[in-house]
User: Fold this.
Amino acid sequence: AEAVEREISFLENDESSISTRGESKGELKKDVSKQIEGLERSRVIVKFIKLYEEAKKEKNVFDYDDILESLVKIVENSESAVSEIREKYLYVLIDEHQDSSRVQNEFLAKVWSEVERPDVFVVGDDRQLIYGFSGASIDHFRGFKKTFKDAKLIPLLDNYRSTQVILDVSHSLLQSVMSDQKLVSQSKEHHPIRLVEANTEADEIIAAGLDIKEKIKKGVNPNECAILVPKNRQVRNALEILHNLGLPLSSLEALNLFEQEEMNALLRVFKIIDSEDTPSFVLSFFDKFSGIKPLEAHQFFALQNMREFSLQTLLDGHPSLFKTSNQEKWVEKILNWKNFLKENHQNSDLQPLIEKICKEFFDSKEKGELISGKDILHTVLSLLDKQKVKNPQITFSEFVLYLEKLKLYGENVPLVVSPKEGIKVLTMHSSKGLEFDYVWIAHMDERSLNSGKSMGFTLPEEIKERVEERDVDAFKRKLYVAITRAKRFCTLSYALESSRGSEQEVARVIADLPPEILEKQKAKVVAQEESERPDLSKLQKLVAQKYRDRYVSVSLLNNFFECPWKWYFRNLLQLPEPKSTSLEFGNAVHSVIDKILKMDHQPSAKELEDLSQDKEVMRIISKWAKERLPEISLKRENEQSVSVKDERFPHLNLYGKIDLIERLDKDNIRVTDFKTGSVRKKSEIEKLDEEGRMSTYLRQLVMYAYLIKQNPKWRVDVRESRLEFLEAKNKKDAFYDHVISGDEIDLLIKDISDYDKFIKNGEWLNRPCDYNSYGKNTNCEYCKMSEVYK
Assistant:
């Protein structure tokens, strides 16, 4: 915690952190701001760990790290314990020693380093150290010889797994720090290692699948074939492609339960049955398991008042709401499951209910799918069994909440599937310890190989130097492990284009290998049967008719230019947004500010306490009310709805809801929009994208200035447009002030015009998604939802 504070202070005050050129001159550089944000997140983690340690003490429990640390403390403080261990364990074998952590090595040293001739036998390979994240370090591996000075090093050079070609490539990639001798193969076979360049990531896997088909024809056992990829999310994509090629697959247990759409759809049903969750109920109409066609769902929701829509209001409404029997059947199914739960609520055994839902829910699923309803059912029931051990009387609500938490926290839950024969698709990391006749290592572009799952945390440099693995060869070792899984055939591949359409190149660790050791090839592009392109002309027409009914707000424009499908689901159909902590927090803060601004006096401490029970909301609001409220003009209006008609778009209603409007004098006003969350820098707010469009923040301010100028009630120029970041640590970072220019108004009019044009001509369906996951390694959920139409 102290290191975090020191580093933040240093970065904020260091001259080199300040930009000296361009529009951001005088501000913190963007990379420095990101570093500070990461440090602030790490500050939160410090608090979390403190609470975690306190919770363990309260419950009187140990975790695995506690056991190891306590073991070391015992042997440090108790000679009798050390003697007992030495007498009881005369011979010590340490396997995979390169993966040992600091505390494991300390235990070893405390007990046996002073013994004259300890019988300690260590086996390991420094090139296969890939558990750096769990505390393993090359220093611990090398340090064994320092702890046990008389230890004899025995290099094992005879290799009985791989061909000499594979060993030579792996040696060129990475050499041992313990010995410079090369491994010698006992195999006489010779097959070149290929580096295959493909146009797309899908082409890589297709090429691998076709190559495996040829190898199987020549006698290679499918069970001896593996495709390795860097990331978990790439496993399912590869399995889908190989499944469509008709290849046998055996590694479905490598899939994470909550990355399967089948499970997400089932969890929606659970939430509907449990609490009539409206967002889940609405989204379920678009699940293929509901039996409702996407256009039927579109036409149904286009007729509803979505602000008041729910299962109950639907049931209370007129039967004519049901335009198709498919919708009726789906609602009947849900009611049937709800009644079953209600009738059996005294029964603590949830298995019959879950089995009934899964059987009927997945009943209409097409045969031959990669993941079956049985796979999902068996995995869910295994989770239920584990929870029943802890809580034999677990209720359905408690179990649904448990599943939601597993999903929210990104818990990896492997599918429970029956053993199958066939090709394995694994991550490079999970392939350690395995071996195959045939290995194809896909997606060897720089980003896939080197980037991990990032949550945006940053360690202070002084901590990073002590804790993080100081090793430039970390990525080489991951690839070394993957290559040496192969006994006979090994191929590497990369794509020139990512799944999102951006250019990419082969990873540097591969590009730096001697050119003569890899046989370079282009992927053989075999003409695939073109799947029938979906006819979306009816959807185009329905959307072109419906969009005029919706107010054009800045959030609508922001959603549209981020992802047209986000606009379609959120703004056109107005599907309710699932609850999120950040959204609820932002709404709570805005609600309290609205109430305060409606007061004609400075609120007392008691009045503030009565406005919210949320401590974090009140922390922000109390400070704001004390420091900011006195500065705000009494001639003000808040939460103002402003709408206009523009003769250029007579069929559109342009609208905005403005947090705060202050009258500075007779002819001038200031518009303020309150923001929760992280501060945005001037350069980020004012940066135009590749299409020359404004950021979401600037577009918002420009829209408000435009509405105020055009609206008959106001018809004045906005002298000052402001974003106020309520969670800013420093007052100087809390405000972004800007005077809207005529050019920026023109950019807004162009956005509205383009939006209008794209919807009319149907071009919105072909616009690319501009979703940015901000380092969280996630894909656009709305693009995923749109697949129901494809």
In short: The chain has 32 helices and 16 strands. The radius of gyration is 31 Å. The longest strand covers residues 649-665.
